[in-house]
Amino acid sequence: MGPVAGETDIGVLDLRDPERSGEAASLLLASFARHLMEPGAVPDSVHQRVRQLVVDQIGIQIGCADLPWSTAVHDYLARLGSKGTATVMAHGTRMHPELAAFVNAAFGHGQDFDDTCMLVQTHAGAVVIPVALAVGEHVGASGAEVLAAATAGLEVILRVAHSATGGRSMTTLDRTAGSVALSTTQPSSPSSQAPPC
To answer: Which has the least CB within 10 A, 57, 137, 167, 174?
Structure first.
């Protein structure tokens, strides 16, 4: 799977361009992600594909929640005593959104069944969708807002991954995509009560 929404005016971002600083690239991606939140910016076919990815990711999270390695992640973070507003799939444990997203992401990649872009070997859904769901639950976002945030996060992680050559840095991509899902799920009002991630 390539970028979810297909061709746009930003095209493929060449991170090796010496004329483009990291800050400029980040601002361009942030602007692009915010644009995807606007009504009509994303074709219905893309929203349908992202809905399928969300359903698939939730199913994998539930299906992998009781695997020994998934249970270990859940139990460790549950012992930290973090009470919060986001739900851990299958267990029903309430945690801080950051922790719930982490646990659900671990469940969502508990077996290698999650979505994969073979060109860049990126499991974008397990990174982006748990963040969009956890933060969406925390801020009371609508389903459409969570879907738009997931779309923006998927677009960014896949565009950055496709622009990088000679390997990948999943730590960087994961943080970038998770941050996009986080920032686009939150209301744009400065008074919003977003989690301090």
So the answer is: 167
Amino acid at 156: V
CATH number, domain containing residue 166: 1.10.4100.10
1-28: average pLDDT: 57
- In a domain, residue 35? The reply is no
Beta strands in the chain (DSSP E): 86-87, 94-95
Q: Tell me: the pLDDT tens digits for 95-118? A: 999 999 999 999 999 998 788 777
C-alpha distance from residue 99 to each of 119, 135, 192 (Å): 30, 11, 20
How many helices (H) does the chain have, and how many strands (E)? 7, 2
Whole-prediction pTM value?
A: 0.79
Residue range(s) defining the domain that contains residue 87: 44-185
Measure the CA–CA gap between 17 and 28, rounded to whole angstroms. 14
> What is the token pair recorded at 154?
């998927």
Domains contained in the chain, number: 1
- Crossing angle of helices 97-108 and 44-64, rounded to 10°: 80
Which residue would you say has higher pLDDT here, 54 or 37?
54
Cα 86 to Cα 64: distance, rounded to the nearest angstrom: 18
